[in-house]
Amino acid sequence: MSNQKKRNFHIEAFKHRVVVDPKYAEKIWSILEHAIHEIYNHNASGLSFEELYRNAYNMVLHKFGEKLYSGLVTTMTAHLKEISKSIEAAQGGLFLEELNRKWNDHNKALQMIRDILMYMDRTYIPNTHKTPVHELGLNLWRDNVIHSSKIQSRLLSMLLELIHRERTGEVIDRGLMRNIIKMLMDIGSSVYQEDFEKPFLEVSAEFYRRESQKFIECCDTGDYLKKAEIRLNEEIERVTHFLDVKSEVNITNVVEKEMIANHMMRLIHMENYGLVNMFLDDKYEDLERMYNLFRRVPNGLSITRDVMTSHLREIGKQLVTDAEKLKDPVEFVQRLLDEKDKYDNIINQAFCNDKTFQNALNSSFEYLT
Amino acid sequence: MKKVDTVKLISAEGMEFVIDKEAAMVSQTIRNMLTSPGGFAEAEHGEVTFPEISAVILEKICQYFYWSLQYSRGKETEFHIEPELTLELMMAANYLHT
């Protein structure tokens, strides 16, 4: 009895293989192709997942995985080319919105397609070392949309323009920016870096070069440093809102170099407003700001320290010559201690109790005594 | 006793099996079917037809889902499979990614 059943099984399996011929594969593929069209046209509700999954399953099972995969590539590419055209056609400000909308559509479609082609993803693709469906979708998007000649440059220039507008005080749509930037990051960090971050940093350097030139002509050190600090914080805030967190260190380096490092000597030695004047006028807030900004650039603090040291020696010399004139040792010691106190306070409050400055201060006074 | 969280699995002959969603999602395929974005017909109506799976096999599969849930909760019993069902059952399991 059970033997007969087993024989039935063998016959059934044999029947399976006979059904499979290229026409069958064509038929299945056209069903799937049609489904992909419907998915891209937002018409998926009429489709049966099971039917599509089963068709994909059968294709792979009967060794037509190659046809399925290449068909997928062709169909998706064709759709993306069309999508590309509609994005290119968008006018002015709507360009980014259209791009964003199509990107969301594509992601949703991609997920659905990946779900119905899950069997291929699981079996055919690892065996042939081809790109999995999801990654394939991202790569095709990158190649056909982002890197399409008309879109690539327009995208970059729009992003840079919006950032420039924000720097000059306009309010921009940060949510939209965030989505677009995230799209670039999703496609690949090299895309983000090459297509956006590098040009962004170059343009930013140019911007801050011009801005710092403008400021240094018309502002005194205290005001200039205030402005520099504002810009620095602005850039950091911008990164947290819609750029990749890894960009923070890059953009802050740009600002630090252009606004601070390039003008450091001029700021310190500015007549009537430089570092020495800040010491003499007890400008704690300005000193603290200078300390915080200069510590960010190479040699910033060492130069500051050197200027402080030479200034202290000047004071010291002054005190000594005065004391000789007055012939009053108590007065001399008192004034010496007063000066030491004053600079102790400055280092404490404005310079974060920086030990290197403390040491410089102590050695200066030892030099005097 | 109609719990809202059930799905209906329909075999090739039209026999309907109503089981808990949790049990059905033991199958990765069914899980994808029900959680895929985009509103495929199955997710909308809560029922899935399997024209290539017979009722006998589908029934066994439903039993397997519940056994699997029990097993993962600690109740380690045996799952008995009649030998004549093995081939079709394995093909169905492959299909359903279970």
UniProtKB/TrEMBL annotation, chain A:
Keyword tRNA processing attributed: no
Keyword Ubl conjugation: yes
GO molecular function, one term: ubiquitin protein ligase binding
A single GO BP: ubiquitin-dependent protein catabolic process
Residue span, Cullin N-terminal domain: 29-367
Keyword annotations of the record: Isopeptide bond, Ubl conjugation
Lineage: superkingdom: Eukaryota
UniProt family annotation: Belongs to the cullin family.
Protein name: Cullin-3B
UniProtKB/TrEMBL annotation, chain B:
Keywords: Nucleus
This protein's record includes keyword Iron: no
Organism in which the protein naturally occurs: Hibiscus syriacus (Rose of Sharon)
Annotated GO biological process: jasmonic acid mediated signaling pathway; protein ubiquitination; ubiquitin-dependent protein catabolic process
Superkingdom of origin organism: Eukaryota
InterPro entries reported in the protein's UniProt record: ELC1, SKP1-like, SKP1/BTB/POZ_sf, Skp1_comp_POZ
Family: Belongs to the SKP1 family.
Domain SKP1 component POZ: 6-66
Cellular component terms (Gene Ontology): nucleus
Keyword Disulfide bond: no
Pfam families the UniProt entry points to: Skp1_POZ
SUPFAM superfamilies in UniProt: POZ domain
Main localisation: nucleus
Cellular compartments annotated: Nucleus
Pathway per the UniProt entry: Protein modification; protein ubiquitination
Full protein name: Elongin-C
